[in-house]
Amino acid sequence: MNIKVDKISVNRSGQQVLNDLSFELKDGLILSVMGRSGCGKTTLLRVIAGLGAPDSGTVGIGGRDVNNMPPQLRGAVYLYQEALLFPHLNVLENLVFGLKIRGEDKKSAEEKAGEMLEQLELTSHARKKTEQLSGGQRQRVAFGRALLVSPAVLLLDEPFSNLDSETRSAMQQLYRKLAKERGTTTIFVTHDLKEAVIMGNRLSYMEDGKLYVYEDLNAFADDPRTGMQREIGFWQSLDKK
User: Fold this and answer.
1) Which one of 5, 50, 169, 229 is least enclosed by Cβ atoms within 10 Å?
2) Number of compact structural domains in the chain
3) Residue 221 resides in a domain
């Protein structure tokens, strides 16, 4: 579903964290959000998810004003670095959990979870406890559980930052594949320039409580704030050595 944020402002302890921030994201797109630490990226995700209230402005999801809706009715799922799986449940049970609390019968829930395990390449780990999995495997399970409930919006707050480079690359490719197949609208927060470009089919940069969304990759690269020109210059300088 599409997301429309209109003139959101958030003030915390006298600091303007979000400042009359507006943007719109069409259904099925992935918006990468970059910005310095403390610029308000996490606050923006929490406001959209309903985990924090704005001082002014509105959040719309799928054409509905969700400002006064509790988080569980917004259709948005918020994930961050820690997988936050249930340690007393095995992998399959973790995947089934979200479907069961939404009223799906056990047989149907397990069939869907089994299909997701195949996509995640974790079928052989179905009966393992989550503590037996690697960090990358736990993160796969967390993504699978989120996607199984078909969220209108997925909000990802630096979800791969704790993973090694090889696992991180595999997770990037996996999520892009699954998001495309399911048409999941996503906001992806990262501090990593390469990851932002890989993950997003829309790119943005947050500064001073505002979000700047670029028309295309060239516009993103041309803005010195994003650091892309410095990155390009670095690799070009290596070629000359």
Assistant:
1) 229
2) 1
3) no
Cα 208 to Cα 5, 17, 188, 226, distances in angstroms: 17, 7, 19, 14
DSSP character at residue 37: T
pLDDT digits (tens, 9 = 90+) for 89-101: 999 999 998 888 8
Rounded distance, CA 120 to CA 141, Å?
Answer: 8
Q: What is the pLDDT of residues 140-184, one digit of tens each?
A: 898 888 888 888 899 999 988 877 888 888 888 888 888 888 888
Name the residue range of residue 136's domain.
86-151
Residue 201 lies in a domain: no
pTM above 0.70, yes or no: yes
End-to-end CA distance of the chain: 48
Residue 33 lies in a domain: no
Answer whether residue 113 is part of any domain. Answer: yes
**Residues contacting 81, CB < 8 A, separation 6+:** 157, 158, 159, 161, 162
Angle, CA of 212, 158 and 20, to the nearest 5°: 30
